[in-house]
Specification:
Structural class: alpha+beta
Protein name: Endoplasmic reticulum-Golgi intermediate compartment protein
Strand content: 25-35%
Organism: Oryzias sinensis (Chinese medaka)
Keywords: Endoplasmic reticulum, ER-Golgi transport, Golgi apparatus, Membrane, Transmembrane, Transmembrane helix, Transport
Membrane topology: Multi-pass membrane protein
Low-confidence stretches: 151-160
InterPro entries: Erv, Erv_C, Erv_N
Order of helices and strands: HHEEEEEHHEEEEEEEEEEH
Mean pLDDT: 79
Amino acid sequence: MRRLTKKKALTLVKELDAFPKVPESYVESTASGGTVSLIAFTLMAVLAFLEFFVYTNTWMKYEYEVDKDFSSKLRINVDITVAMRCQYIGADVLDLAETMVASDGLNYEPVNFELSPDERLWHITLLHIQERLKVEHSLQDVLFKTAHRHTSCFHPCFVCRDSSSPPNACRIHGHLYVNKVAGNFHITVGKSIPHPRGHAHLAALVSHDSYNFSHRIDHLSFGEAIPGLISPLDGTEKIAADYNHMFQYFITIVPTKLNTYKVSAETHQYSVTERERVINHAAGSHGVSGIFMKYDISSLMVKVTEQHMPFWKFLVRLCGIVGGIFSTTGMIHGLVGFLVDVACCRFKMGGYRLEKTLFLFYGENCEDLILPPN
């Protein structure tokens, strides 16, 4: 009884076989089938190779939400060279609440405003990158992927600066921590002093002939400093046409959380518009000579996450490629064969009908007629 039950079970399983085996004696190999198989295998190999590159690649996902962090401090990273002596200028921040931020984190270093050949090459390269970033927005994803936490100088060529000539400029570099409200970071004539209504600069002690606010922004960023990221103002160089010149930068800061396979940090992106003019009180152009960076903080936060295709999805897509090509090439091969058979059958049927007509007309004597070849 048990053997009969097993045989019935095996018979039932065999009937459920969705992949019946065809004996080899019933299989006929043709040249057309071999050609189609070769094309199918080639397509499968190429598409599988390309799919593997898609699997190994990553992409950036952008998400937006309201920034609820209003109590933390905002870090400003600065590296600016101004074509004036360090004792003649001062840099500080005044926020929207009229709070003056201490500039203890900034260093004043006497340097030469002219760049060495290596520095000039780096500066030109940076300008080319900035031009490409304005056109190819997808390059920003590449910068996000290459960002890392290695501590390095913002400007890699200051070690090769020529110190043989006397310094005629001042490099202001370092960082500041300010409140997360709109503010004004500025560099102007004279050192800043606290004031009950804000602050003031001792500009009366500096001669107007020494004014020269030509400057070069080697780096300006907000938030955690991440080497590898390029900010919009990096590499900006402005030459003042007059000693009484005002440069204004209006900056909108967007908080950004960056999560990649190399780094996870909270930083900030920003957009900027520029304006400059000559101060001439007689012509109605009022103001103070200097470099003014007025910034505002967006209420939206951007989450940038590097993502990768899961392995199971790669297998599903790979199986879809193999099965799809097999099915498609099989259907195309069968359709072409069917059309060829139909065409050949019609041709043969035409010859058969001509022979039958002659037989009916001439009778048995039609065998003596010489029919034209089909």
